[in-house]
Amino acid sequence: MKIDPEGRTLGGITGFLAFVALNVMYIVSCVPVVTIPAATSALYEVTIRYSDDESGRPVADYFPAFTRNFPRATLLGLSLLVPFVMLAFSTAFWAASPEPLAIGAVIISAAGAVYVFAAFLHAMALVAKFRNGFRQTLKNALLLPAAEPVRTFGILIIPITVVAITVIFPLFWVIVLTVAFSVGAYGTAFLFRSVYARYDAAPVDEDRLGPPQD
């Protein structure tokens, strides 16, 4: 019997194990909490690259990407996650209020929280894909949810679905701990690539994300 190392079955098993390892690496690197932005950016970097005809080495490239992206990702994460937490707290506060007008505050706060969280995800992917400065990356991240609402909805629905299923079915934690983050990031990688394909910026050479080409 001869085993073909390039065979589909073996390749599928190898790929699955790589995603399991990547998922564990991501969870471990998120434990300090403050490293969540850098870890998310690194996860996006390796999965965006891998989604392009399976190029790159997701496991081997993860920690170099984490180290490289840490300064920008952390600063952007603080700039966006702090407002997100404040808006989420405001949503919960007004939702518990008996005031008749509280429903309006709930809607505004919730919409703001969702928008800022979407901007955070875009920011982490922009750090992963481009080498722009802090101000330009933040500007692009805040503009993209409005400029790309359909794709942004797809980017948001994956983590929201994972959280919702985990709350409803606690056994889903097994999936979360094994492949949920890595596979979810791989799925959103195609959406991020489709967003960036509409813009004329090069990954390294351009200083900003250019306007969509007609």
Automatic annotation (TrEMBL):
The chain crosses the membrane at residues 12-34, 75-96, 102-128, 140-165, 171-192. It comes from the Bacteria. Keywords: Membrane, Transmembrane, Transmembrane helix. This is Putative membrane protein YesL. The keyword Membrane applies. The keyword Metal-binding does not apply. Pfam families: DUF624.
